[in-house]
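Board notes (copied after class):
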Amino acid sequence: MTAGLCAVALWSGSFRTLTSGAGLEARAWGFIVLAGASGAASWLAYFAALKLGPAGPVSALDRLSLPLVFVLGVLLLGEKPGWIGWLGLVVTVAGIYLIAFDANRS
C-alpha cells in the first residue's frame, strides 16, 4: 500500500512538494517513519494474538483503541464532545463487550 501511495505521489508530482524546502521537515519525516514502523509492529502483534487465541476477543481488544483515543482526546487535548459523541462511545464499548462476551460463550 505504501508503495502504491508513493507511486501515485511520484506520478502526480506531489512527491517533489514533500521533499522540497516547502514540504516536510526532517523531524516530520522521522515521525512518519516511526508511525509506519509502529503500525507494522501493531499488525504483527495482532496476527500473533490471532494465532494464539480466538478472533472475537482479540479483535474486540484491538477495537478498544477507538474508545481509548476518544477518552485521551478529552483528558489530554481538552476536546469537548457533545452528547452524540458520548453516546457513540457508550455504544462502541457496549458492542466491543458483546463481541468479546459472545466469543467466550461459544
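Comment from the instructor: The chain has one domain: 25-105. The mean pLDDT is 84.
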